[in-house]
């Protein structure tokens, strides 16, 4: 039974309906009554009903406004928070797809809960008392109906899986996919799944069973060896923020199959910023329009692959520093095209930190990829391709705690092997060497910065007036140092721990935009200067106002 937050009846009165809609509503209610989905009721609970026409059809659909009821029931957690991945279907295996008919209406409500889902059918001109009914089956619009449906339907194929161990059975809500090594085994499994569904009191659309390629399942188009998204109704000229949100949601859903990088889509994502109302008008920039065109092209030209069960999984970091993304793939050495793309992995559009170092970004990608592969297959990668040479990787690994955590318990190989494929030729790049030194540089210029205005008299000074906090002043001074001494090795000594930390992390880093424009401008300039610097630098923090001898 459903857990309720109150036993006090919730009653929302039925609103008036036009004659045309009321007539159609009476017919729909009579249909549900004849099917045994509703029963006459004297419940004190009530929620309004209404009807809408199905898109593209001349038929009405009955809807029950259960918002008030949803507020007084305890929400059940999702049992299947993500869609099953068709990429895990072995390539070449035959498939059948089943659609369970009216899944919600096949699942009975607990008799204790049923009277709380009552509604009233008004009569024309109030000629007669309203007829009152309540649902006997899962009502659409009840927030726990999807979870109950998942639990109920999941029980159906469980026994079949035990009897047909070679078959793979994917299920999400009322869509069931069966995949088997050969057709005879598939037919036997399919027959038993259909029998199990019917024994549970549900029906299957015989005319909707898909037996031949391409199979359509959960928004994807599955061929013998490849997978692609079904062609989406991409709104290529969104005019409101709501339409843009819909567009970006659709794009995010297909990205793992198509490899659309965060950098490519950034002009679109940037338009989502701000706290405007959803009906606010927006203007699509030329850059955003170019991003939409890339999506449209990818939908028709890019594919992922079905897995080869005899090959291990690999992961590669792709892209140029610091705009990294990743690829989960298999490598079939004997095939004409050896690259089997399983799924792309991306970092969030907005980084979690103001300054993210390349090694931390790679660590986050690896963490995401290993978690995703364990979710899909229960196994780990046998090879991870890094964008560093072996000696540089050892150095980066030793000083990056995030990278150490990302590779915890990893037993596979690590390297920078560049596989012979067009994708890796264009998208796999070794990271440039860092010029930051871990120790003071001999015979280098030593520069002291002080944003407090109390510099030692013996220092060579360049004084600039900077508005803002002492950290802003110190950061401005450091930026000026790297601008002025671009062609010389530099030892930088600063009395700001904040600035020393920023400088030590800035080289080749990804910068998150911050609201304070002056700070963001200084950070962006510092990252640019250090990422393009040819000569080494060393940064050191000292407490220059401690009164101790020395500097």
TrEMBL record:
<dbReference type="GO" id="GO:0035613">
    <property type="term" value="F:RNA stem-loop binding"/>
</dbReference>
<dbReference type="InterPro" id="IPR043502">
    <property type="entry name" value="DNA/RNA_pol_sf"/>
</dbReference>
<dbReference type="GO" id="GO:0004523">
    <property type="term" value="F:RNA-DNA hybrid ribonuclease activity"/>
</dbReference>
<protein>
    <recommendedName>
        <fullName>ribonuclease H</fullName>
        <ecNumber>3.1.26.4</ecNumber>
    </recommendedName>
</protein>
<dbReference type="GO" id="GO:0003964">
    <property type="term" value="F:RNA-directed DNA polymerase activity"/>
</dbReference>
<dbReference type="Pfam" id="PF00078">
    <property type="entry name" value="RVT_1"/>
</dbReference>
<dbReference type="Pfam" id="PF06817">
    <property type="entry name" value="RVT_thumb"/>
</dbReference>
<dbReference type="InterPro" id="IPR000477">
    <property type="entry name" value="RT_dom"/>
</dbReference>
<keyword id="KW-0540">Nuclease</keyword>
<dbReference type="InterPro" id="IPR012337">
    <property type="entry name" value="RNaseH-like_sf"/>
</dbReference>
<dbReference type="Pfam" id="PF00075">
    <property type="entry name" value="RNase_H"/>
</dbReference>
<comment type="similarity">
    <text>Belongs to the beta type-B retroviral polymerase family. HERV class-II K(HML-2) pol subfamily.</text>
</comment>
<dbReference type="InterPro" id="IPR043128">
    <property type="entry name" value="Rev_trsase/Diguanyl_cyclase"/>
</dbReference>
<feature type="domain" description="Reverse transcriptase">
    <location>
        <begin position="33"/>
        <end position="222"/>
    </location>
</feature>
<dbReference type="InterPro" id="IPR010661">
    <property type="entry name" value="RVT_thumb"/>
</dbReference>
<keyword id="KW-0695">RNA-directed DNA polymerase</keyword>
<dbReference type="InterPro" id="IPR036397">
    <property type="entry name" value="RNaseH_sf"/>
</dbReference>
<feature type="domain" description="RNase H type-1">
    <location>
        <begin position="441"/>
        <end position="551"/>
    </location>
</feature>
<dbReference type="InterPro" id="IPR002156">
    <property type="entry name" value="RNaseH_domain"/>
</dbReference>
<keyword id="KW-0548">Nucleotidyltransferase</keyword>
<keyword id="KW-0378">Hydrolase</keyword>
<keyword id="KW-0255">Endonuclease</keyword>
<keyword id="KW-0808">Transferase</keyword>
């Amino acid at each position: 039974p459903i857990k309720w937050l109150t036993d006090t009846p919730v009653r929302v009165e039925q609103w008036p309906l036009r004659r045309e809609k009321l007539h159609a509503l009476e017919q729909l209610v009579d249909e549900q009554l004849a099917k045994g989905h509703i029963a006459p009721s004297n419940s004190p609970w009530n929620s309004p009903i209404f009807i809408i026409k199905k898109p593209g059809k001349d038929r009405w659909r009955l809807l029950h406004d259960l918002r008030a009821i949803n507020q007084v029931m305890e929400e059940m957690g999702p049992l299947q928070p993500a869609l099953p991945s068709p990429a895990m279907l072995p390539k070449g295996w035959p498939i059948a797809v089943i659609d369970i008919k009216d899944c919600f209406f096949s699942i009975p409500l607990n008799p204790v809960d049923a009277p709380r889902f009552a509604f009233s059918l008004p009569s024309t001109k109030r000629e007669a008392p309203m007829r009152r009914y309540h649902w006997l089956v899962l009502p659409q619009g009840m927030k726990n109906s999807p979870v109950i449906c998942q639990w109920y339907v999941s029980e159906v194929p469980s026994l079949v899986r035990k009897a047909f161990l070679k078959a793979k059975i994917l299920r999400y809500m009322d869509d069931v996919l069966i995949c088997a090594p050969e057709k005879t085994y598939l037919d036997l499994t399919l027959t038993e799944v259909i029998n199990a569904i019917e024994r549970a009191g549900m029906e299957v659309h015989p005319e909707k069973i898909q037996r031949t390629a391409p199979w359509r399942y959960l928004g994807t188009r599955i061929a013998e060896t490849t997978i692609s998204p079904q062609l989406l109704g991409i709104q290529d000229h969104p005019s409101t923020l709501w339409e843009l949100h819909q567009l970006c949601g659709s794009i995010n859903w297909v990205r793992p199959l198509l490899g659309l990088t965060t950098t490519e889509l950034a002009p679109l994502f940037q338009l989502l910023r701000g706290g405007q109302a959803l009906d606010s008008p927006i203007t699509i920039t030329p850059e955003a329009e170019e991003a939409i065109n890339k999506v449209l092209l990818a939908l028709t030209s890019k594919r992922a692959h079905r897995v080869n069960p005899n090959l291990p999984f690999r992961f590669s970091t792709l892209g140029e520093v610091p705009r990294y993304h990743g690829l989960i793939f298999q490598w079939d050495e004997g095939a004409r095209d050896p690259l089997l793309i399983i799924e792309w992995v991306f970092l969030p559009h907005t980084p979690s930190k103001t300054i993210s170092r390349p090694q931390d970004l790679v660590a986050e990608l690896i963490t995401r990829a290993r978690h995703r592969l364990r979710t899909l297959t229960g196994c780990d990668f046998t090879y991870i391709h890094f964008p560093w040479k072996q000696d540089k990787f050892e150095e980066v690994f030793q000083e990056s705690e995030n990278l150490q955590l990302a590779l915890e318990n990893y037993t596979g190989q690590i390297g920078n092997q560049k596989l012979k494929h067009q994708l890796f030729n264009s998208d796999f790049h070794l990271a440039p060497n860092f010029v930051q030194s871990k120790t003071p540089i001999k015979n280098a210029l030593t520069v002291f910065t002080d944003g407090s205005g109390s510099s030692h008299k013996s220092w060579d000074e360049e004084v600039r007036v900077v508005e803002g906090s002492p950290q802003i002043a110190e950061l401005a001074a450091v930026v000026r140092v790297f601008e002025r001494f671009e062609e010389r090795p530099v030892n930088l000594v600063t009395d700001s721990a904040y600035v020393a930390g920023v400088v030590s992390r800035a080289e080749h880093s990804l910068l998150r935009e911050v609201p304070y424009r002056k700070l963001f401008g200084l950070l962006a300039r510092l990252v640019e200067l250090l990422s393009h610097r040819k000569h080494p630098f060393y940064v050191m923090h000292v407490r220059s106002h401690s009164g101790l001898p020395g500097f």
